């Protein structure tokens, strides 16, 4: 049984390590390209600002999540010691929510920038969206910081019962107790996921409706519409994100169900997808951006 546990742990660490470093490379590429562009141009447009912050958040999230997962599997005695666990959980929560809300902000930006509606409020947002991006990103980070502080407080409570555990078996029991105690944080995560998911859904619906109206207007025109192309490209990006976001939300629900089952195949698949999500979606964003795509294709050979 001990050899099976060791084999399972080695498999999890090996696969997640490959995913994490691939995702970190993709997001580091985005950050480096945009930083170089900001130095050359002395400024970044609104889309590039969102992508830069998103790349930074995902890079840090993948690194901290990998360290947390590695220590919880290989060196649980080191992790479950005050205040290391609280710092790991709090940092992971902060960058996870930063990733989610900045991604949602990107969807809102695409929707407002590209969709066409005659509503006066929408027109006002369309004119002011570039000035509002900084405030939108700042609000996302403040919200993520608040969630990180709450997660730190939740993670600190189990230590009052577990700080005297010293044996290997006691550490395993302490780990299970902590996981059960983290149910409030899972519900908190569910609320954050659901709220940002609703933002993505509304952005996709408004953009789809705008695309349909624009298509109706262009039916009599045989010429190719640049606005139509912009609608379709933005719709593809949001649709990809919507699909991955849906799967990620299902993984969160399953993680709540299988939280104490350390060697379950479902737990393994959840970890595989959650580590793949930041890298795969960032790769989609690269191929949706002509500048990033061209740079990537130039350096790959």
For the structure shown, list the relevant keywords:
globular; Rhopdopsin 7-helix transmembrane proteins; single chain; mainly alpha; 87% helix; 301 residues
Overall geometry: globular
Q: Total strand count, please?
A: 0
Largest sheet at a glance?
none
Write the CATH fold name. Rhopdopsin 7-helix transmembrane proteins
Strand content: under 5%
CATH class: Mainly Alpha
CATH architecture verdict: Up-down Bundle
Distance between the termini: 46 Å
- Reading the helices and strands in chain order gives HHHHHHHHHHH
Low-confidence stretches: 160-179
* Count of DSSP-assigned helices: 11
Structural class: mainly alpha
Subcellular location: Membrane
GO molecular function: bitter taste receptor activity; G protein-coupled receptor activity
Keywords: G-protein coupled receptor, Membrane, Receptor, Sensory transduction, Taste, Transducer, Transmembrane, Transmembrane helix
Membrane topology: Multi-pass membrane protein
Short description:
The protein has eleven helices and no strands. By secondary structure, the chain is mainly α. The model is unreliable at 160-179 (pLDDT under 50).
Structural commentary:
Its main location: membrane. The protein has 301 residues and is mostly helical. The protein has a single domain (1-157, 178-299), classed as Rhodopsin 7-helix transmembrane proteins (Rhopdopsin 7-helix transmembrane proteins, Up-down Bundle). It contains eleven helices and no strands. It has helices spanning 2-41, 46-74, 76-79, 84-114, 120-156, 159-162, 168-181, 183-218, 226-257, 265-288, 290-299. The radius of gyration is 22 Å and the shape is globular. Residues 160-179 have low confidence and may be disordered.
């Amino acid at each position: 049984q001990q050899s099976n546990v060791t084999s399972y742990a080695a498999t999890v660490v090996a696969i997640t390590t490959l995913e994490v470093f691939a995702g970190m490379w993709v997001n580091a590429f985005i950050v480096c390209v945009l930083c170089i562009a900001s130095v050359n141009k002395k400024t970044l447009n609104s889309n590039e600002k969102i992508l830069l912050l998103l790349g930074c958040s995902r890079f840090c999230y993948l690194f901290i999540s990998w360290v947390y997962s590695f220590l919880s599997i290989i060196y649980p005695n080191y992790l479950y010691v005050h205040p290391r666990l609280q710092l790991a959980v709090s940092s992971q929560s902060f960058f996870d929510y930063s990733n989610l809300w900045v991604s949602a902000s990107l969807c809102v930006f695409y929707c407002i920038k590209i969709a066409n509606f005659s509503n006066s409020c929408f027109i006002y947002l369309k004119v002011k969206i570039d000035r509002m991006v900084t405030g939108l990103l700042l609000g996302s980070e403040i919200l993520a910081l608040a969630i990180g502080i709450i997660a730190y407080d939740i993670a600190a409570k189990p230590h009052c019962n577990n700080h005297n555990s010293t044996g290997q078996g006691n550490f395993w029991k302490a780990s299970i107790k902590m996981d059960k105690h983290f149910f409030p944080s899972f519900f908190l995560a569910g609320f954050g996921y659901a709220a940002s998911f609703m933002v993505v859904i509304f952005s996709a619906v408004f953009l789809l409706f705008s695309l349909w109206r624009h298509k109706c207007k262009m039916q009599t025109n045989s010429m190719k519409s640049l606005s139509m192309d912009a609608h379709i490209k933005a719709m593809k990006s949001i649709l990809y994100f919507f699909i991955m976001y849906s799967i990620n939300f299902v993984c969160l629900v399953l993680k709540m169900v299988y939280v104490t089952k350390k060697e379950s195949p479902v737990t393994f698949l959840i970890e595989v997808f959650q580590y793949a999500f930041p890298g795969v979606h960032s790769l989609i964003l690269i191929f949706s951006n002509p500048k990033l795509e061209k740079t990537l294709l130039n350096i790959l050979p």
